[in-house]
Design a protein that fits this description.
The protein is mostly beta strands and 248 residues long. The chain contains 2 helices and 19 strands.
Length: 248
């Protein structure tokens, strides 16, 4: 069966089954609690940007490891980090290298088992230094993915992975990117123009495709947030509810 047909079949099943959703996304339980850093010895701010590994303390005391997609600013010019919604649920505290760098601002998670949005923003504190680019990811704009685009993911587990967009369904982007637990929230960037297009969510690891949520849709739903790029703040393009599956 083609990737497109498998995506379509899985989508139809997910719309009628609450058992598919949070359990197949790619957050990973943190190996250990984030150890506090010595604030006196660490006076410099901690860089937070595309591909940064984060450890997240949920309100129930559980710890999860995910990845930052991108940084952005609110309409009032406050810095935030963007990741997957099932990573930074409401009330979460977020750490980098044992240092508290922020807390959940807004979140929308697909944990109800449907194709609901999967994005979150994290308000950054003065211990965090938001950066536009990392070694591999240097977004120049916000883009809308198209079937056939070459895209890459920077995940905290899988590292740098590249592949092709195989389908678009609403605000969801399907690709043949390899992924693993911990990659959730990672940046999806188009190689042809360095446009930031998505936030990695995950999917079943016994399938040969991954799923990401549209960054443009997330920024719009957050309230018109602006992506931090190497060229300065960038607005999201207009989003459309229409999409199509590829034939590969």
């Amino acid at each position: 069966m083609s990737i497109a047909r498998r995506i379509a079949a899985t989508a139809a099943a997910a719309l009628t089954s609450a058992s598919i959703g949070f359990g197949v996304a790619s957050a990973a339980p943190a190996e250990e609690k984030a150890a506090p850093t010595d604030e006196k010895a660490t006076s410099a701010a901690t860089a937070v940007g595309p591909g940064t590994t984060i450890k997240i303390e949920h309100p129930d005391g559980s710890w999860w490891r995910c990845t930052v997609a991108f940084t952005a600013t609110t309409p009032s010019n406050e810095p935030v980090a963007v990741t997957a919604g099932h990573c930074a649920i409401p009330g979460s505290k977020v750490y980098v290298d044992g240092r508290l760098i922020g807390e959940t601002d807004q979140t929308s998670s697909r944990d109800d088992g449907t194709f609901s949005p999967d994005w979150a923003t994290i308000t950054l504190n003065d211990k965090a230094q938001p950066v536009a680019a990392s070694d591999k990811v240097a977004p120049e704009s916000v883009g809308k993915a198209q079937v056939g685009d070459e895209v890459c993911l920077q995940g905290s587990t899988s590292g740098w992975q590249c592949g092709e967009v195989t389908g678009i369904l609403g605000d969801w982007i399907y690709s043949d990117l390899e992924h693993a637990p911990g990659d959730s929230g990672g940046p999806i960037i188009r190689t042809s123009d360095n446009a930031a297009v998505g936030i990695h969510s995950g999917w079943r690891f016994d399938e040969d495709y991954g799923e990401s949520y549209s960054l443009a849709a997330a920024l719009t739903k957050a309230g018109g947030y602006l992506l931090t790029t190497v060229n300065g703040p960038a607005p999201a393009p207009e989003t459309s509810p229409l999409g199509s599956l590829g034939s590969s």
